[in-house]
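Exercise: predict the fold of this chain.
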Amino acid sequence: MPRFAANLSMMFTEAPFIERFAAAAEAGFQAVEFLFPYDFAASEIKAQLSRHNLTLALFNTSAGDTAAGEWGRAALPGREHDARADIDLALEYALALECEQVHIMAGVVPDGADGARYRATFIDNLRYAADRFAAHDKRILIEALSPGVKPGYLFSSHISGAGHRRRG
């Protein structure tokens, strides 16, 4: 039987974010996901999950400075410190919210930039994340974003991200 999670960043947007948990439960969902929890204390989100008997399926590391065009920092050369701070914060939230998996936001590769350098930076940060999350029996995910959704994102298709899957 399929299981579905309501994406609270995209659904029930007529209500403030913190009220969307109730809306999801009332609609029959048993799990939720959202893009970014960081505007709220983990305890506030945990209270909503508990109050409405919901599990958290997934959330993302920080997008960074979206006003400057960032959409993740794990692939950005020279931003390793920021990326690892994002990873550490996401792990704190994952532990507090009992979330089993987190999407590591790669980032946007500027036109004309050396894509290999961005991929190498991402792999280094992905290894860091994998070690940190595995120590707590949590999973990390990568996600492709189509050019129509986020032009220049490091992974534009499932094929472009497939080489980063842990083997064995």
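Check your answer against the key: The two ends are 27 Å apart (CA to CA).
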